[in-house]
Amino acid sequence: MKNNKNVKVVTVLGTRPEIIKLSPLIPLLDEKFNHILIHTGQHYDYEMDSLFFKELQLKQPSYNLKVGSHSQGKQTAIMLENIEEILILEKPDMVIVQGDTNSTLSGALAASKLHIPVAHIEAGCRSFNRYMPEEINRVIADHISDILFASDKKAGECLLKEGIPREKIFLTGSTAFDVCLRNKEFITNSNIDKRLKLTKNQFILVTLHRAENTNNPQRFKNIIDALNSLSEAIDIVFPIHPRTAKIVKQHNIKMNTKIKVTKPLGYIDFIKLMSQCRIIFSDSGGVQEEAIVFNKPCLIPREDSEWMRLIEAGKNFLVGIETQSILKKTREFITDDTKLNQVKAIKYPYDKNVSKKILALLSDFLKK
To answer: What pTM, to 2 d.p., does this model score?
Structure first.
């Protein structure tokens, strides 16, 4: 595929999941186009941001807005204003956004209002829960995008049902699998399991960050109560998101001292733990996908998920938000090797070379 440095493409990102999921595509865009990277600074801690650019061998952003933490509306507004100024200055031929964050929404809105074509990666995902800010972001981004890359057939069907023209939709698969495969070989460089004194297949890896869980004190307490009980039977490693840590302190939520709480981990350390754990317990959409590559069941403390195909396949499980429900379903995987092995025996074919497919489709679009 020939380079075309006369074509200018801007990618907007701002959070750990976006950096991770875009990491296989960014070098391809750098090689093919005049590629400009805008980092909104929605995630701004070193462990959530700079470390990932270093570990994933990505170029530094051309612009870093350093927006930081604000209310939903204020954060989106600041991003929108700043991104618009950059787009007016740079005059790109296309803007690429990923996923469902406020950075996604701001990038798509700024470009759309300036009549710059928008490409949305991970389009069509739906939880059908409009109380989630992510659901609002992803729906709006989809409806103002010009080319939509759907992760699976179900996502593509959602877009069609919402009236988005078929010719705008491309079923490419998810870049999350590209990321894991790209970095899987580097996990031998990590000794995080030894540092935390963990035994292979004898610990649970936990992440919690979604606002629907952390912003509801009772719901969050239910989840932590379940983890406190589980930590009496098995090691639990909990790399805690800065906002989640703030909420724990704010609401004086007590965590069992047996839970191994760490700062957010670098990506290589994190996937090393994924490869070594018994099960994963997470409300993260990206982690639900990454678990497939390492063939680990992911238990999801939610009542819905954007990745229902993984649940319907019997690989991942919704465990609810009540303490007893979480305990009942999680303990099965702790105590029953037969059940665990049955889930692991299910073959789930995941997509490969997704980033290359996306690059080819973008190139074709930009030739028109």
So the answer is: 0.82
CB-side neighbour CA atoms (13 Å) of 165: 6
- Domain positions in the chain are 4-174+351-367, 185-345
**Kind plus residue range of the DSSP H or E element containing 260:** strand 260-262
Strand order in the sheet with 4-13: 63-64, 33-39, 4-13, 94-98, 118-123, 147-150, 169-171
Taking alpha carbons only, the member of 315, 325, 318, 326 closest to residue 350 is: 315
Q: How many helices (H) and strands (E) does the chain have?
A: 18, 13
Catalytic residue of the set 39, 209, 241, 251: 209
Per-residue tens of pLDDT for the chain, all 368 residues: 456 778 999 999 998 889 989 999 999 999 999 999 999 988 666 455 677 788 888 889 999 998 888 888 899 999 999 999 999 999 999 999 999 999 999 999 999 999 999 999 999 999 888 888 889 999 999 999 999 999 889 999 999 999 999 999 999 998 988 888 888 878 888 999 999 999 999 999 999 988 888 888 899 999 999 999 999 999 999 999 888 898 999 889 999 999 999 998 988 999 999 999 999 999 988 899 889 989 999 999 999 888 888 999 999 999 999 999 999 999 999 999 999 999 999 988 778 899 999 999 999 999 87
The CA–CA distances, whole Å, from 145 to 264, 322, 328 equal 32, 38, 42
Q: Amino acid letter at 30?
A: D
Which residue shows structure tokens 């209310």? 71
209 catalytically annotated: yes
Same fold, 4-174+351-367 and 185-345: yes
DSSP 13-26: E-SHHHHHHHTTHH
Q: What is the CATH number of domain 185-345?
A: 3.40.50.2000
End-to-end CA distance of the chain: give it in Å, rounded: 16
Residue carrying the six token digits 């099960």 = 279
CATH superfamily of 4-174+351-367: Glycogen Phosphorylase B; (3.40.50.2000)
